[in-house]
Amino acid sequence: MKVYFDNAATTPMAPEVLEAMMPYLREHHGNPSSTHQFGRKTKSAIETARKSIAKLLNCSPPEICFTSGGTEADNTAIRGAITQLGVKHIITAPTEHHAVLHTAQACAESGDVRLSMVRLDAKGRVDTDHLRELLTAAEEKTLVTLMHANNEIGTMIDLDEISEICEAHGALFHSDTVQTMGHFPFDLAKTKVHFMVGAAHKFHGPKGVGFLYINREVHLEPLIHGGSQERKMRAGTENLYGIVGMAKALELAYENMEGHRARIASLKQRMKTKLKEALPELSVNGCEERSLYTVLNVTLPETAQADILLFLMDIDGIAVSSGSACSSGSNQGSHVLRAIAADEAASAGPSIRFSFSRYNTPEEVDYAVEKVVKHLVGKEVVK
What we know:
The structure is a single chain. The chain is α/β, with parallel strands linked by helices. The chain has 2 domains: 3-12 and 256-377, Aspartate Aminotransferase, domain 1; 15-255, Aspartate Aminotransferase, domain 2, CATH 3.40.640.10. Helix content is 42%, strand content 12%. It is built from 13 helices and 12 strands. A 7-stranded mixed sheet has the order 2-8-7-6-5-3-4, sandwiched between helices. It has a 3-stranded antiparallel sheet with strand order 9-10-12. α4 links the parallel β3 and β4 (114-117).
């Protein structure tokens, strides 16, 4: 059996998405910047995709800028806020994805901004009182950048609450929503956020394409210079088929979002219950009360060795992760678990992340639990 439980790293592409992309891979090959009918055909497809995404998020099409993915979108927002919007102070959290964390740190090291870290509790939740303190004390123009849901432990912020705090203090607000886009509904006419991010491959779309939402109240100059694509916001020939596929993937996600959520959440609960029954000493990382329903991060018994377990599970045909895929190969462990001061959990044993999608099944959960328990304690799980 082949079981894929690493959907937080990337998701399998939906068949309907590939079908929507195929005409633009096979037939419609015109450059969208060309004025002849071949170019107009592909340009129209891009603008139709932009309108579709904007409608789903309840914003205007010009507020959507297509990018190569979440990392470029995050960099564009953060660096643009510094160079063009007068930001001299960034507030973020040490549990952010490296696309945000490393960008903010690089800007601070170059002397462009002052960097502050908001306090977190042991479950990864933001201390909103401390955030208010940091904003009240700040004399400079400030950008708050906090991810909607953590990609490793699943802990979520209250997007509306953080946005209201930022608005009250005159701060800009950027949220990396890569893990929640396509999994939670957004109403950008109501949520006061200046920048948000999406990456198609996190919601069953193609890799190498994403978008940045830029609130109409702010204006950014391009991070990449060249042609006048994306309303002069991002130079370079557009990823035509990727953009078409991304729009289709988001449409599919919204069509039955509640149904997908209920089904995936039941798989996560099944996995958690069965693991705890078989391994009582196992602990769950993150905030279980307010968590991304696609992610389950657990700390294994002290005797477990993550690398060996992942190797054995790979042989069993099971794909899981010991953390973020963007950090695979690092010997430093999870920066997220270190940042939330989960020292006791980190020293007790390694953490494993299971992440689910609408294509997973209860049978796959049972198979994965059986193999985990067998490799850790050498016994079969009673089903």
